[in-house]
Amino acid sequence: MKRPQPRGPEAGVDARRAALRILDRVVRGGQTMESAAQGGPTLEPNDQSLALAIAGETLRRLPLLDRLIDGATRQILPDDAKSRMVLRLALAQRIALSVPDHALVATALPLVEGGPRRLVHGVLGTLLRGQLPDASEGALPDAVMQRWTAVWGQQVADAAAAAIVRRPPLDLSFRSHDEALAFAAAEGGTSLADRHVRLADARPVTSLPGFAEGRWWIQDLSSTLPARMIPADAARVLDACAAPGGKTLQISAAGHDTAALDRSESRLARLRANLARTGLKAHIVTADVLGYMPDEPYDAVLLDAPCSATGTFRRHPEVLLRASPRIIAESAELQGRLLLAAAQWVRPGGTLVYAVCSLEPSEGEERITAFLAEQSDYSLAEQRRVLPGELEEQGGMDGFFTARLVRGG
Ligand SMILES: C[S@@+](CC[C@H](N)C(=O)[O-])C[C@H]1O[C@@H](n2cnc3c(N)ncnc32)[C@H](O)[C@@H]1O
């Protein structure tokens, strides 16, 4: 996809102001990029895309940008200081979007008018006169780098650092493999799995053929793995924690009698829209996993549990800022309870599939070990861990964990 380019310094201040607002809401307010981008002043579509691109490229490079800023001034700029935010945005534009120096300076300084203008001008001048890193140079926040090096090793942590600055490809799921193959041939994509197509250059999705007709939906290849673990002969399948429904669509397309449960009405509205667009069917259940009990057990249950989502850092780099050890521990504790609840709804001889888009073992492997220690009627049939670096040459995959458990008959 062609990245949005600024039209000129005088036209670009609104976009930078919007990018500053997004960055501030993510870094100081702990919001996701998606929610941070809502509700600001209305911008022209070009400026809106540019603001998102600048904020996104900044978040992908935060540790690297901070190291540059700290090396260029003796003054200690707090993490949430406006001067640091504006410098981060300006440097990211130069490194990742090739914005010329004069445009950077002209659009950065109005953001600190009446404030630390001289400081920002000085630091930016020093940095722009020196050698800046290449766009392909990535770094993870220190705490994440240490954690992932400790659990997965240096190679995986380095692969994650490289992946965070790379635009991920666009993965699409199809109702049938024949449709996937026909689409791949027509659009220059590659099919890496049943009913899957990967497009290397992410294009605006609405411009791709078949969008309006619901011939496909966007789904990272990793997150297609859990539904692939559901046995073909499972008649009734429950997708617990289903919304917005990528896995529900897969399960329904595979021909199972599908129920989709979630506690969030607003997210279920998106699931309903996805079913309507693709013409696929599922019974919708609005309920909390922790209080639900079905009238009769299911042949298979998929629990795609809420998690730290650290595996999705390529599309949502801000997850690495939010996923503190405390949040990861709270999330793991909840997953343990959700698993125990979902395990009751599987018929003897049936299948329970557990999944998280997390790169934290405490939300994946360790949850399954703890579950099996408590539930002697379950056994582990298979588990799959996707780490950064997998399929790197073809564009990589999100970090992921999924396990298939079988209930004794
Ligand atoms: C990882 S997302 C699910 C993504 C979805 N499976 C897909 O493929 O599109 C987790 C979902 O769990 C739901 N959720 C979280 N806690 C829940 C609970 N206690 N009961 C029911 N749903 C819950 C959230 O509303 C959210 O939609």
What can you tell me about this protein's structure?
The protein is of the alpha/beta class. The protein has two domains: 9-129, N-utilizing Substance Protein B Homolog, Chain A (Orthogonal Bundle), CATH 1.10.940.10; 221-407, Rossmann fold (3-Layer(aba) Sandwich). Helix content is 44%, strand content 15%. The protein has 16 helices and ten strands. The strands form two sheets. Strands 6-5-4-7-8-10-9 form a seven-stranded mixed β-sheet, with helices on both faces. It is globular, with a radius of gyration of 23 Å. The chain starts with 8 loop residues before the first helix and ends with a strand. The relative contact order is 0.09. Bound molecules: S-adenosylmethionine (SAM). S-adenosylmethionine is lined by residues 223, 241-247, 262-264, 267, 288-290, 304, 306. The site of S-adenosylmethionine has 17 residues, from helix 12.
